[in-house]
Amino acid sequence: MEQENTTSQPGPQDPQPSSAPEPPPPAPDTARATAELDAALAAAREQAQARSARISELEADAARAREEVRTRTADIEALKAQVRSAREEYARAVNALVSMHRAANPDIPPELITGGTMAEVIESVNRARDLVRKVRELAEREAGAARVPAGAPGRQPPDADGLSPRDKIALGVGRSRKG
Questions:
Q1: Which of 21, 30, 45, 134 could pair with 26 in a Cys bridge, judged by C-beta atoms 3.0 to 4.6 Å apart?
Q2: pLDDT at 12 over 60
Q3: Domain boundaries, the chain
């Protein structure tokens, strides 16, 4: 018997083998699903690009805001320095006002003219003037009540009515020695 050749060679009836088999044609449902997925992917990419652009805008806005904060902080610090300087200058002006009022009002005790603001200094000067005026009026009234007429007083013997008998005797003995 003859042996048959087990190796087959391609013949006119056998198709040539290809390196990869061709996929079967897509089913209508698969084609539609693929189209939907492609559209969804394109929409997602478009959204991602829009969000990326928005993120870039927000980052730029944030950088501008940080720069604005730095600028405003520097402005605030400069204003704080100006306020400190103005307060120091105001304190010097108040002290000068106190000194001026003390010099202009020598009849007012200096410790009565005080204050931390110009209004307080002026108020203390007004209160001190009122006090000095009241003290003067009181002193003048008391002095007026005890006024002694000018010149020598008339000679009158001392009043012995309120004296004890012993004091009366001493008064009489004192007169007799003088006279």
A1: 30
A2: no
A3: 35-143
